[in-house]
């Protein structure tokens, strides 16, 4: 084995070692982030939607949004024109895609916000406001 080859091999093994360490660190960080987010409140997207007039409108939107991969739960309030979508644990909702789905169904999205609440929490909060 020449010195040159030995040098190359050493360099390669150093690179491999540092890459492995880097990947391990990334995975650790991702895992920590996942644990962190699931330990806290759920994340939902709350949209204000114009044009929903009956239960069939609500049902159609609910069906579309429920079929999206990151959706955990959907809540539609016709009177308050609110559509809420809750993300599955550790997943992120695509606000643009949600708004696109609602528009595709024939309705108008006037406001879209991300809230740190579950759909159940949004639901009970809205019921409380009605009283
Ligand atoms: Cu309708």
Can you describe what's shown?
By secondary structure, the chain is of the alpha+beta class. The protein has two domains: 1-40; 44-130, Alpha-Beta Plaits. The protein is built from four helices and four strands, in the order H-E-H-E-E-H-E-H. It has a four-stranded antiparallel β-sheet, sandwiched between helices. Strand 2 (71-77) and strand 3 (82-87) form a beta hairpin. Mean pLDDT is 82; it is low at 19-23 and 30-38. The structure holds copper (II) ion. Residues 53-54, 56-57 line the site of copper (II) ion (CU).
Overall outline = globular
| Percent strand | 15-25%
> What about the largest sheet?
4 strands, antiparallel
Q: How confident overall, as mean pLDDT?
A: 82
CATH topological fold name of the largest domain? Alpha-Beta Plaits
Show unreliable segments. 19-23, 30-38
CATH C-level category of the largest domain:
Alpha Beta
CATH architecture of the largest domain: 2-Layer Sandwich
Measure the end-to-end span. 85 Å
Count of discrete domains? 2
Order of helices and strands: HEHEEHEH
Strand order of the largest sheet: 2-3-1-4
Structural class: alpha+beta
Proportion of helical residues: 40-55%
Associated small molecules: copper (II) ion
Radius of gyration: 23 Å
Number of helices: 4
How many individual β-strands?
A: 4
The gist of it:
The protein has 131 residues and is an alpha+beta fold. The chain has helices at 3-39, 55-66, 95-104, 119-130, and strands at 44-50, 71-77, 82-87, 108-115.
